[in-house]
Write a structure and sequence with these properties.
Blueprint (H helix, E strand, L loop, with lengths): L5 H33 L7 H8 L3 H8 L2 H9 L18 H23 L6 H21 L9 H15 L1 H10 L4 H14 L3
Length: about 200
């Protein structure tokens, strides 16, 4: 009959402890992300993150040290598919693309605005914000190729700039939050802007 060696038991315990540690880290990050989607960064405390993650404040500090470090780790996590539905847009289906974009903004638009307000204040965010800008430029190129056909060089870059402005988070905020338009009205207005760039 085989017996478990002390080395085997020690290895098992180490693997189990590592898995538990990773689960705890993931739980803390998930709570921090959820709170971030609901409130301003400055309103979120480590104590609240710990309480909602079901761990002690000491555990949070041991894992991350600071609130900035938690959010830096969160930013390295893969983006949930449900938060990037715009990537499913078919080329030149303007209404469909804007509907998917609107879904993304409805899910995380307010949190994105709050994140952009922290640019330059929290170094860990700057690279992510810049990556987001690059992704938006790439997305409009893929979503609206007809608006870019036959354009080269500076003219093409200027048209991409206009498409980014038309579909950007600030345009959504002005229409949806500042003007108080319904989601359908906001989508219609953004569609109108994009359609004008296809002429």
């Amino acid at each position: 009959m085989a017996t478990t060696t002390s080395k085997g038991k020690r290895t098992y315990r180490m693997v189990k402890r590592a898995a538990s540690t990773e689960q705890t880290r993931r739980r803390i990050i998930d709570v921090a992300l959820r709170l971030w989607r609901e409130r301003w960064y400055d309103e979120i405390t480590l104590r609240e993150v710990a309480a909602q993650a079901g761990v002690s404040l000491r555990t949070v500090v041991n894992h991350f040290g600071t609130k900035e470090a938690i959010f830096a780790a969160a930013l390295e996590s893969p983006v949930e598919e449900k938060l990037m539905t715009r990537l499913e847009a078919r080329p030149d289906d303007i209404a469909g693309a804007i509907r998917l974009l609107s879904q993304d903004y409805e899910n995380v638009g307010d949190a994105t605005i709050r994140t952009l307000a922290l640019e330059g204040r929290i170094a860990a965010l700057d690279a992510t914000i810049e990556r987001g800008r690059e992704l938006q430029r790439a997305w409009v190129e893929e979503a609206f190729p007809a608006a870019l056909s036959d354009l080269r060089g500076g003219a093409r870059e200027r048209q991409i700039d206009l498409l980014v402005c038309a579909t950007g988070i600030y345009t959504w905020k002005i229409l949806r939050r500042d003007r108080g338009l319904s989601r359908a009205q906001t989508e219609a207005a953004i569609c109108q802007l994009v359609e004008a760039l296809h002429r």
